[in-house]
Amino acid sequence: MGAAFPPPLLTAGSPPSAGGWSAALAVTPLLLCAGLLAVATSVLHPFEMDTVVFLAGGRWVATRYGRCSTVCGIGITVGNLAIGALLDTTRDMGRPALPWPVLALLGGGCATALAALSRTGRLTARPQPVTSVPA
Q: 67-126, pLDDT tens digit by residue?
């Protein structure tokens, strides 16, 4: 996901175009960013759902999916508000390109942390046998 944020640097701080091909070219980095985020989300989602099932231990899976969705929704809302405030603040400071490398570094830091967890074996699922299914 961190790789999705550098493309907007290409047009950050450029004055808006009146229309035509220059406007289409100005929007292209943002479309590339959105496309890369969509692909990354589609790759990540099955891992996330499998993790919820594993952590649930075969019990109350739907409840845990709901809890995960609620927490993720709150995180997305707060994150979007914070990023919007960052975009506005840096634009007002005259540094409109600043948020994009910050977001790329944040994404890269998260990927590095996941790689470290994987190397230590903390992401390896250890399936537990389910002896009975609760009614």
A: 999 999 999 999 999 999 999 999 999 998 899 999 999 999 988 998 898 888 877 766
HSE of 130, CA atoms in CB hemisphere, 13 A = 12
Q: Measured in Å, how far apart are the chain's first and last C-alpha atoms?
A: 40
Give the torsion through C-alpha atoms of 9, 14, 20, 25, to 10 deg.
Answer: -10
* Helices 21-56 + 61-92 axis angle, to 10: 150
Q: For residues 49 and 66, give the distance between their C-alpha atoms in angstroms, rounded to a whole number.
A: 11
Cβ of 106: how many Cβ atoms within 10 Å? 14
Q: Is the pLDDT of residue 66 over 80?
A: yes
Assigned token pair, 101: 């490398």
The closest of 84, 94, 7, 4 to 44, measured between CA atoms, is 4
